[in-house]
Amino acid sequence: MLCTHMDEAIAFLREACTAEEYVWVSEVFLEVTQRTGSEEFVQAARALLTKYPEESRQYHIADSVAEAEAVLEDMAANPGWYAFLDAFHALVQARSGLSPKGEAAILACNEEMADLICTSLEYAIAYLREGCPGEEYMWVSEVFPEVARRTHSEAFVQVIRSLARRYPRETRRYDILPDIEAAEQALHGPPE
Prior knowledge:
By secondary structure, the protein is mainly α. The chain has helices at about 5-15, 20-25, 30-35, 40-50, 55-60, 60-75, 80-95, 105-120, 120-130, 135-140, 145-150, 155-165, 170-175, 175-185.
């Protein structure tokens, strides 16, 4: 809700936020900052540290604000990483919302996802290695063979093998092993 209504959220923090509300809202400072990259939001949150010093101390809210500020610095230093994450999450969300009967839409979405991964392979490998949750793994697995075929990246195939070990239940439940095996075969096929 805060991300969707950022102007109102900033106005709320600056003008109407009570001490109790500040404590509760502080729990999502980091996530809101990661999603929006809003410096104004973080500035409004920081201003409340001095307005509510007791709550800030008791609930370690300064740490939450500092984490949000660190994210802003990291976003400025690594814009490509955050652009990749935004695009990747949007595609995974779009794919998860498609009907199994919408084959053309699924193919189009998967083609877009494969394009993104291939053009941002280093970021994709890092994300799959360090941050990909199981629910995203099942959707992105659909493009494993295509990405391996187009990139011939041993590092990519290694990371998807590690995902199968990290998420054995999802691998079995969603029958992902054939996609990984196809990616392994594509790795050794002729270059595109």
